[in-house]
Design goal:
This is DUF2066 domain-containing protein. By secondary structure, this protein is α+β, with helices and mostly antiparallel strands. It is about 35% helix and about 30% strand. It contains twelve helices and 14 strands.
């Protein structure tokens, strides 16, 4: 037999749950969010109501799940980012007139997206930000010459994003509207140094790596706030289905090594874009190796890469006419064809095989 006191506790709990204005099906689902907005038109009223509802639900989420410090950081996010971290928005009921809109919503948030924002903002607790030694990794996928950067059709990016393991040396971008504004696809294609520097500042780090996956080739392009630095290409050996995992392990090992920035200590005298026909992946690798050894080449940056061709941007410590004879001695021929600087490997016997031994 239950005591009257026990029964009263049960009844009190039921009443509390029944009349609580916000109910939780999970920690990230906020139910019964009510808004009532009047504006110059019902369309405007509805737009404002949605913004208000998202903020209202987000505030409840913060107060019930996060510390005051975490709340302070998360409250700074923009309305655009807030919209992106919502998983579902259900209209429970709504009423509208010519200038008024009222509704009740159930709003569920994406836990992983919120946790990412917290990690990104954890270094902003003080105005003097301590720079992290982590590497900002940007997975880029090239499919049939189409570049996938921030769009949702980038399974290479999603592979990292959905990886349950935490990689202590890596920062993965949120790929939200703020990232898109800082580094739009046009700036990526043009290798806009200022845009890349802004992205590093945005994530409070000093080094970034573009991980460009193109079929069975992974190109790793290093960049800092001052320059685009060396790029390294690797041929993946596993099947296409295992390529992501192989590339990931390669990258995790690659970023452990410190980045050499000696090439940025000398200001380039000339920067030249070079078209490179590719007969085989091995030719491409040897070409890159030879250019790294050439004393007149400060750095070579990959602008484009397909199965048939590549495009390199060479930073030279002299003008190209002075550099050409040295490159010829190393087995690289560069000439202008139809107004385009074009590179080819010399047919000299052994020049490719001995590339790694060039003084």
């Amino acid at each position: 037999m239950f005591s009257m006191r026990f029964i009263s506790y049960v009844i009190s709990a039921i009443l509390f749950l029944s009349f609580s204005p916000v109910l939780y099906a999970s920690n990230y689902l906020i139910e019964d969010v009510e808004v009532d907005v009047t504006a110059e038109s019902v369309t405007k009223a509805r737009e404002q109501a949605l913004i208000e509802a998202r903020r209202k639900a987000f505030q409840v989420l913060l107060e019930n799940n996060f510390t005051p410090v975490e709340q302070s950081n998360l409250q700074k996010i923009s309305d655009e980012t807030l919209e992106e971290i919502i998983k579902t928005l259900e209209v429970v009921r709504e009423k509208q007139s010519s200038m008024r809109y009222s509704a009740t919503f159930n709003i569920e948030f994406k836990p992983k997206s919120i946790n990412k924002i917290l990690k990104k903002d954890s270094n902003t607790l003080n105005q003097s930000i301590t720079k992290t030694t982590k590497v900002l990794l940007i997975p880029v996928l090239v499919e049939q010459e189409k570049i996938h950067l921030w769009d949702g059709n980038n399974p290479w990016f999603n592979f990292w994003n959905e990886d349950p393991k935490e990689h202590e040396n890596i920062i993965l971008p949120l790929a939200d509207l703020e990232d898109l504004k800082i580094l739009p696809i046009k700036s990526y294609k043009n290798q806009d140094q200022q845009a890349f520097a802004k992205l590093l500042n945005h994530y409070h780090t000093e080094r970034g790596v573009l991980a460009v996956l193109n079929d069975q080739t992974i190109e790793l392009i290093n960049f800092t706030k001052d320059a685009m630095l060396q790029a390294d290409a690797f041929n993946l050996k596993t099947s296409e289905t295992q390529a992501y995992s192989e590339a990931q392990q390669l990258i995790l090992e690659y970023i452990k090594h410190p980045l050499s920035t000696s090439s940025t200590t000398i200001k380039p005298q000339e920067i030249v874009d070079i078209f490179v026909p590719i007969n085989s992946f091995q030719d491409w690798i040897h070409t890159r190796q030879i250019l790294e050894k050439a004393k007149c080449v400060l750095s070579s940056q990959v602008l484009e890469l397909t199965r048939e061709s590549g495009k390199l941007r060479l930073s030279l410590n002299s003008n190209i006419d002075q550099c050409l004879p040295q490159l010829r001695q190393l087995g690289i021929m560069i000439e202008q064809l139809d107004g385009t600087w074009t590179l080819s490997l010399s047919p000299m016997t052994g020049i490719i095989n001995n590339a790694s031994n060039i003084p």
